[in-house]
Specification:
Strand content: under 5%
CATH superfamily: ABC transporter involved in vitamin B12 uptake, BtuC
Distance between the termini: 34 Å
Protein name: Iron ABC transporter permease
CATH class: Mainly Alpha
Pfam families: FecCD
Structural class: mainly alpha
CATH architecture: Orthogonal Bundle
Radius of gyration: 20 Å
Helix content: over 70%
Number of helices: 14
Transmembrane segments: 57-74, 86-106, 112-131, 143-164, 184-209, 230-258, 270-288, 300-320
Number of strands: 0
GO biological process, one term: siderophore-iron import into cell
Family: Belongs to the binding-protein-dependent transport system permease family. FecCD subfamily.
Order of helices and strands: HHHHHHHHHHHHHH
Number of domains: 1
Length: 326
């Protein structure tokens, strides 16, 4: 409980920082006034905080939480500490489906992109699972087929971008870099309505993840129907990834970093690890977005790029640590 409260306090501080910093910095007292007494605060501050910065910050936190939990599921199901949602090709399927809607039906993209991303993620997960099936599926086979399918979907995404209408492609390129530009309250509500039940379901199934992370023979010996459980958890992870891609485009490395950071605090038991990974993912992506908006202001770096700049050294450190420990 102490660690959870500390994480919530850090997330609250990061949210406050996100509302105060930007192209036009707002003093802390003015931020508090706009949040607590908007009718008495300057209209410009209220507009900037309530319309521009607060929904963007909340959406970044929700997407980060989804990626953190998705990464936790992936690492347990694959029994691989270097696994993350993008490794299975699920992000690629969601991105491809959403991009197709953006380029082919630009007038309806706001309504159809979330649904397309979720369906694309589920379709990619189903295809990878089917291709991996040989009387059951093994984690290593899923990873290899996921990498191949992800590369194929990335190539198709690039092909569509090369032949799309210029204006639509420019918007899509910003989205593909992992950006929260233009985020509004509708996107926050949609992401929250998707994340909360999936997060609750994942936490309820924490014991299943504990067993899946063990050797398969041990999990079977303890009564787990491994293949059915693995398929169910992959589906939940696909929905989390699809929702995050729909909200902000494909964002890498958060699903890798968040579970590792959370595991160092809570240990491997998933009942404690899942909420900790959600908090860690929310904090990481929110800080990445804040840094991206301010490091070279007034220009902005998309959150997805900032996450990659943080995640690549982290991945290299994990590889070095694994070799050193081995």
């Amino acid at each position: 409980m102490k660690h959870l409260l500390t994480g919530l306090a850090c997330l609250g501080a990061a949210l406050f920082l996100a509302t105060a910093l930007g192209e036009q910095p707002i003093p802390p007292r003015a931020v508090m006034a706009a949040l607590l007494h908007p009718s008495e605060a300057p209209g410009q501050h209220v507009f900037i905080i309530h319309t521009l910065r607060l929904p963007r910050a909340l959406l970044a936190a929700l997407v980060g939480a989804a990626l953190g939990v998705g990464g936790t599921i992936t690492q347990a199901v694959m029994r691989n500490p270097l696994a993350e949602p993008g490794l299975l090709g699920i992000n690629g399927g969601a991105a491809l489906a959403a991009l197709a809607i953006m380029l082919w039906l630009p007038g309806t993209s706001a309504r159809l992109v979330p649904a397309a991303a979720l369906l694309g993620a589920l379709a990619a997960a189903t295809a990878i699972y089917a291709l991996s099936w040989r009387g059951g599926i093994g984690p290593q086979r899923v990873i290899l087929i996921g990498l191949g399918c992800g590369a194929l979907m990335g190539a198709v995404t690039s092909f569509l971008s090369a032949f799309g209408e210029v204006t639509a492609v420019q918007r899509a390129m910003l989205w593909l870099s992992g950006s929260f530009t233009g985020s509004g309250w509708r996107a926050v509500l949609g992401m929250a309505l998707t994340l909360v039940p999936l997060l609750a379901l994942t936490w309820i199934l924490a014991r299943v993840l504990d067993l899946l992370a063990m050797d398969e023979a041990v999990a079977r010996g303890l009564g787990l129907r491994v293949q059915a459980a693995r398929a169910a958890m992959v589906a939940i992870g696909a929905l989390l990834c699809g929702a995050s891609v729909a909200a902000a485009g494909p964002v890498g490395f958060i699903g890798l970093m968040a579970p590792h950071l959370a595991r160092r605090i809570t240990g491997p038991t998933h009942a404690a690890l899942i909420p900790a990974a959600a908090l860690a993912g929310a904090l990481l992506l929110l800080l990445a977005d804040v840094a991206g908006q301010n490091v070279i202001a007034p220009n902005a770096i998309p959150a997805g790029i900032m996450a990659a700049l943080m995640g690549a050294p982290f991945f290299a450190w994990l590889m070095w640590k694994g070799r050193h420990d081995g």
